[in-house]
Amino acid sequence: MRFQFIVDEILIGLRRNIAMAISVVLVTVVSLFLVGLGFLAQRQVDTMKDYWYDRVQVSIFLCGDGSTAAGCADGKATEAQKEQIQADLAAPQLAAYVDKVYFETQDEAFKHFKEQFKDSALSENVTVDQMPESYRVDLKNPEQYQVVAELFTDKPGVETVESQNEVLDRLFALLNQLKLGAWMLAAVTLICSVLLVATTIRLTAFTRRRETGIMRLVGASNFFIQLPFILESMIAAAVGAGLASVALVGVTKFQIQDRLAQSLTFTNYVGVGDALMVVPWLFVIGLGIAGVSAFLALQRYLKV
């Protein structure tokens, strides 16, 4: 009997305040969708880091004819200098940092240059003699590239030491700023959702103050009186979370995987599986915000 009464009260409340319920659903959809994008942005940054840092190398370019760097005072790198660099790379103090070392000759460097710039006129004006020899160092932890870079900078026979991490660090700093912006926007919309739910519940309670007054007179508890209002807001939030989840999975599938990943293939992207892992959190956040907001609003404004 009590269960049927609560169901009837919920249906009456939703029917009387259909416009407000729709507003709660729409605000919940937008806020939770942005929260979902925030989660995916975090996952995308982590995915890109795993993809790119696994491919990062420290490149130790050796002195060539005409090099003017501090380590090239004696001209082109000698065999003794090359052997010393090779020995330093194999030294025990670098064992915790260096994974593999490759020596790239001028011919190999020229071949790679021609492949990389095959559609550019630049490749027609470069000769083998102009390409530097280099050591390509794979790191066990790419984020510790500075240890190797600092050790070989200005070393005799070394013209320059370069690492892609320097570019990647700036890229990921920008991505982290964008991710922070997404989280801030999501937080603002969640606050709007909380305020709208609280306002909706207060208005609903005011329009049904006569019914709640009668319930109090016949001995109904505060929780029993408040339960229909709380469930109304949670139902609207659940609908909003469901729609936000569909939108998030759809964007991931059709926009990220089917379009972006097919046109820009230079990295890995988040997939539908990542979006599905976010879905339960959207329901938890949506239902939690709706339930708590409604409860607190009724504690203060439901006067019977």
Question: How would you explain this protein's 3D organization?
Answer:
- The chain is of the alpha+beta class and 304 residues long.
- The chain folds into 2 domains: 2-52 and 171-301, no CATH class; 57-163, Alpha-Beta Plaits, CATH 3.30.70.3040.
- 67% of the residues lie in helices and 8% in strands.
- It is built from 9 helices and 4 strands, in the order ααβαβαβαβαααα.
- Strands 2-3-1-4 form a 4-stranded antiparallel β-sheet.
- α1 (2-16) crosses α8 (222-263) and α6 (165-207) packs parallel to α9.
- The longest helix is centred in the middle third of the chain and has 43 residues, at 165-207.
- The radius of gyration is 31 Å and the shape is elongated.
- The protein starts with a helix and ends with a helix.
Give start-end ranges of low-pLDDT stretches: none
The shape is: elongated
Radius of gyration: 31 Å
Helices, by number, come to 9
- The helix-strand sequence is HHEHEHEHEHHHH
Content-based structural category: alpha+beta
Average the pLDDT over all residues and give the rounded result.
81
Family: Belongs to the ABC-4 integral membrane protein family. FtsX subfamily.
Membrane topology: Multi-pass membrane protein
Domain ABC3 transporter permease C-terminal: 184-303
Function: Part of the ABC transporter FtsEX involved in cellular division.
